[in-house]
Amino acid sequence: MHKSLIIDAEKCTSCLQCEMACSYEHTGAFNPARSRIKVFELEHGKRSIPYTCTQCAEAWCQKACPTNALSRNADTGAVEVANSKCVGCKVCTIACPFGTINFDQNIGKVVKCNLCSGDPKCAEVCPTDAITFGDANWTGLNKMRATAIDTDAGSQASA
Amino acid sequence: MKITLKTAGLFSRYLPEGTKGNLAELEVKDGATPVDVARQIGAPTDTKCLIVVNGTAVPPSQHDIFTLNDGDAMSFMPPLKGG
Amino acid sequence: MSWQGKVLRVNLTKGTAEAEPLNMEWAEAYMGERGLGSKYLWENMDPQTDPLGPDNVLIFATGPLTSTMAPTSGRYAVLCKSPLTGAIACSNSGGKFGAELKFAGYDLLLLEGKSDKPVYLNIVDDTVEILPADDIWGTTVWHTEEWIKKTHNDPLIRVASCGEAGENLCRYAAVVNDLHRAAGRSGVGAVMGSKNLKAVSVRGTKGVTAADPAKFMAAVKASHDVMAVNEGRQELTELGTNSMIDMMQEFGGLPTRNFKEVQFEGVDKINTAAMFEVKENGHRNMVTNKACFGCTIACGRIAHIDENHFSIVNKPEYKLASGGLEYETAYAFGPLVGVSDIDALTYAGYMTNEHGYDPISFGGTLAAAMELFEMGVITKEDTDGIDLSFGNPEALTVMSEKTGKGEGFGKILAMGSKLMCEKYGHPELAMHVKGQEFAGYDSRALQGMGLGYATSNRGACHLKHSTFGEDMEDVSGNGKAEPCKTSQDHVAAIDSTGLCLFVGDAGMEISHFVDLLNGAIGSDGSQWSEERMMETGERVWNLERRFNMSAGLTGADDTLPKRLLETPAPSGTGKGKVNELSKMLPEYYKLRGWTEDGQLTNELIDRLGL
């Protein structure tokens, strides 16, 4: 069973601990500029939204890659970049509909979320559980549960 | 005996279930101290907590000595912070 | 490491920008941010300089823990000589700007001289440009940030700017970054404005590394873990700093109507319960809470104003949600001026952020003006027709806008309470120390707070010491000097790390700092300890003091207004008491190792290596 990052933007305070944890894991430095997860702050901070690769089952980036540098890790379900094969052509960055694979000028390769090989640091460090790591089949479970509670409250009120 | 207990901040979570707002009447044992009251409602007994009885602050060193009387109004608040 | 090892020196007169190596000897002795910034200020300017002249130096300083994964690592300090006090100004801020400056590769930014026309400084790693600011001069903090991001086509740029209040040299203008975080106090924004520097915009991509990553990450985890379960942290997260207002009300230390009273009848309308209350029309003041960089507390409030409120009926642009009330803004716009209209308070908060000035000094100045109005010293003819009675919400909303824009009576309010009250012949009504207005704690109920106010190196300030515990224990001057001195040194050390003081209210102990520092900057030859932190704090405190003495201040400036020394508190825990400063101050000087008139001795200067 694979796990997915489950993002609940409502809970995000935009502290950017996730961006620091991500960059530290992948570059050895605290450097949000090289984080693979980004938090977008909107409307004077009223909304903040963490966003990263959702590991598409049919990955546009993988299909577009001319050097077969992108492949799925069978253990984690993440699409990963093989630096030995990536030539930095950036075709995948054009193909990805979500903008979550990007070129890193520091290394001349593309980078994307690889779920930290199954132990994502962003989820580990998030202080508000805006980012959690759970059952890939049930990323909607919390939302479903909340809706169920609302629906039940409605039916009880009318009963 | 009965006292009126007023809380501030998150300490309202320690008031008896069903309390609306931050004010509750509480039955306490005769001669209870502020610390006894804190224990009774399951709140911290940290001396940094601010306790005011009938408008006068009870110094931290008196929290477990000062005796309350029937009808007293006790305010029980989290530690002061530099905001 | 955790140092970038570089200072960016910008000379606005010559139009030059050059990076130079960070003086590591000073970094070892003064740590960073407040301490190291003070050292650079001391070494780079004459303390007698006119604060609004070109020779004042303006420093933006980060600390060794800034930009790291340590909790609350977004802090930076702005330092210069203050136009409000004539003393050293050191005002720190959160948000995301400070971290970005360090990511660009600089521990400190040092600005000298004065540009002959409005400019802004744009920093993208090693590329530093001084660019014309004609399109943003005369505009707000909010507009400036939007314009810069749009002009450079980069939404990830972080901006700190001075607003119109800074341009107009409001004595308590702030430097505001990330829309609603501010280096708020002592008029640092006016110094920025006096240099014709509208903004500093930064984009940094260099990253920061720890000297011993494994040790550092273990210390980070320990800090995160202790804060996660701490009740004080939960309180700050859920309720924000304004939960203090109920406690100050109960204690009887809530300065009300220019310190004539110490408890406020309208407190229930502006406290945290009021912020969360859903009104009949469905409006709730509080929207959500937000964090500064790296902060796992997130005490910042995002609020909005009821769209039917008089302040914004014809101003749809203020229907947005933005920075909401914190304790000091709630106090300064509420009890201090007698106003209990939460929407009026929130609106005034928007004004201070948008136009860039300090809410505490503004509230203190408005309160003094209200007392002058009540006495008939000033009338509606002076106040642009506005009824300046205590409690009038319109006085607050209109004057907050006028002060921000430098219009009408707002120009008078922009002088600060000391100069304004002198102008009207009533200096006794100005509630200040060294020209800076008080935070929301009355020093007749909180006696040690009074000593802290009187001796703070930047004038009245609640953030430079902490004697809450001792003040609760005993309402007298007894036993306050020692905790005041010790906590001043402690706070000076924390302020020099790059973290926020609030972590101390959220569970972190000094031992956590020691571990973080050793992981971040420790080396075989240089380990940190509690003792070294406290000694560093003492060094920083005395350097600030030395700056002030060289600027012409004396021990006579370590005082409180007559109202606190001679007029007993009318109610509360301090009822019938005045502040016992005359008892505390000599004891404090002695503990500091200063002379009887408050001067540093050569012996002390040598011992601390100043």
Overview of this structure, please?
The complex is a heterotrimer of chains A (159), B (83) and C (610). In chain A, a hairpin with a 6-residue loop joins strand 4 and strand 5. Chain A contains 5 helices and 8 strands, in the order βαββαββαββαβα. Chain A is 28% helix and 20% strand. Chain A has a single domain, classed as Alpha-Beta Plaits (2-Layer Sandwich). A two-stranded antiparallel ribbon of chain A has the order 1-8. With 159 residues, chain A is an alpha+beta fold. Chain B is mainly beta. Chain B has a single domain, classed as Beta-grasp domain (Ubiquitin-like (UB roll), Roll), CATH 3.10.20. Chain B has 1 helix and 5 strands, in the order E-E-H-E-E-E. Chain B has a 5-stranded mixed β-sheet with strand order 2-1-5-3-4, with no helix packed on it. In chain B, strand 3 (50-53) and strand 4 (56-57) form a beta hairpin. Chain B starts with a strand and ends in a 6-residue tail after the last strand. The relative contact order of chain B is 0.30. The model of chain B has no long low-confidence stretch (mean pLDDT 90). Chain C has 3 domains: 6-203, Aldehyde Ferredoxin Oxidoreductase,  A, domain 1; 250-433, Aldehyde Ferredoxin Oxidoreductase Protein, subunit A, domain 2 (Orthogonal Bundle); 437-608, Aldehyde Ferredoxin Oxidoreductase Protein, subunit A, domain 3. In chain C, the strands form 4 sheets. In chain C, strands 2-1-6-3-4-5 form a 6-stranded mixed β-sheet, with helices on both faces. A 6-stranded mixed β-sheet of chain C has the order 8-7-12-9-10-11. In chain C, strands 13-14-15 form a 3-stranded antiparallel β-sheet. In chain C, a hairpin with a 4-residue loop joins strand 1 (6-11) and strand 2 (16-21). The longest helix of chain C is centred in the C-terminal third of the chain and has 22 residues, at 530-551. Chain C is globular. Chain C starts with 5 loop residues before the first strand and ends with a helix. Classes of the chains: A alpha+beta (159), B mainly beta (83), C alpha+beta (610). Chain B binds chain C through residues 6, 8-10, 21-22, 44, 47-48, 50, 52, 55-57, 59-61, 75, 77-83, and chain C through 231-232, 234-236, 238-239, 241-244, 246-247, 250-252, 272-273, 326-328, 440, 462-463, 466, 468-469, 472-475, 501-502, 505, 571-573.
